[in-house]
Amino acid sequence: MCPPHRVDTYRRAIGLAMPDDLRALAALHDFIADLRTAFELAGPPTYERLETLSRRYQNADRDGGPRILPLAHSTTHDYLSGKRHRLPPWPWVMSFVLVLRDAAVENALDPEAIGTPAQWHTKYRAVRAALAQSRPPRPPLSAPVPADWRAEPADPHAGDPDPGRHTLQESRPGPKVPASVTDEVDRPSTGTLPRASGPDESSGAGSEPPPEPTIMRRRYAEAFGRTGMRLLRQAEGDEGERQGVPAYRLAALLACADRPAEALYWLRRAARAGHGRAAELAAAWDPAAAPAFPYWQGAEIAYQIGLEYDREGLPFSAAVFYRGAAGLGHADAAYRYGLHCLRIGRLRDAAAWLDRADRNGHPQAGQQLLLHALGGSSDGSPSGVCEHLPSTAPQ
């Protein structure tokens, strides 16, 4: 692994010329990290205790004082884990800080270590300013899906995202992909399409249909590119001959994209088609009670599916799953997705994802950051970097 001071020097160097979208992503990432640090400095308390303390304010006479929101367990977990991919609203941040100060006192700790609402508001405004300077999101897809929806899009890289998929835009489009690999190129989501109504989370397996087919195909094509469309076609037609594998993989993508109701629907479809692991997960997972099921939250299943695609010689399909797992904090997935971005010439995205992998403790990500700094060119071409890249094929 590279010496930390060399990696930090490189981070500072790219920060001087960092585009607004990556700067906003970094500011948001740092703010969420500060929230987690404050949480630790308060004990840390349990999520249940924070919710209990916040509800005390609801029952007390607070005339003239701040309005404290109830800190629901699932909401607090999602914000601190970065799962919501956006800046929390200020009333929630203010409530979180004030309740944390109470928790610190309860744990015989100094509440001043948490900071005051005024100090946090200064940080909050800085992040909002960085987000405001980033590019606006793309407009939703409005054109209807062609009658022959199996036809592949002409520009397979047109929708490649950057690391801030739900709030930020790509820094530059990817290069043209050779014809020999266009059959597997994917076009992941920018997170801008409106969601269609999903199946009822509390219903039994198969009691509710999936979203209307045309809407669902449009959404999956935009969200997961050709890989998502291929899995959708296979899952819809699987009567057991594929043993539920396509539906299981589709459920993994949807879970990583924070669509628990749809994920559970396809998990149940996979179970009915004979997938044993899907049956176990579907029986154990209640999205209404625990939207971030721990098995999905860790993103290990998406990462393992990515490895399977790599072994099958389908790196672009693998990248869709690495991207989903990396977005939930999986260091190995972030590293592999960063290397994928390097290979297709998306150097800024590669730098951001390798940096995330390095911060999450991946032993080789720092070295790849420095190789990128030494070999990358300003016009976005690999410029000799790829010859230094390790193989991403699973051993």
UniProtKB/TrEMBL annotation:
InterPro entries attached to this UniProt entry: TPR-like_helical_dom_sf
Domain of life per record: Bacteria
Residue numbers spanned by region Disordered: 130-215
Composition skew (Low complexity), residue ranges: 196-207
Comp. bias intervals (Basic and acidic residues): 149-169
Gene3D superfamilies: Tetratricopeptide repeat domain
Name this protein carries in UniProt: Sel1 domain protein repeat-containing protein
Organism: Thermomonospora curvata (strain ATCC 19995 / DSM 43183 / JCM 3096 / KCTC 9072 / NBRC 15933 / NCIMB 10081 / Henssen B9)
Lineage of producing organism: Bacteria, Bacillati, Actinomycetota, Actinomycetes, Streptosporangiales
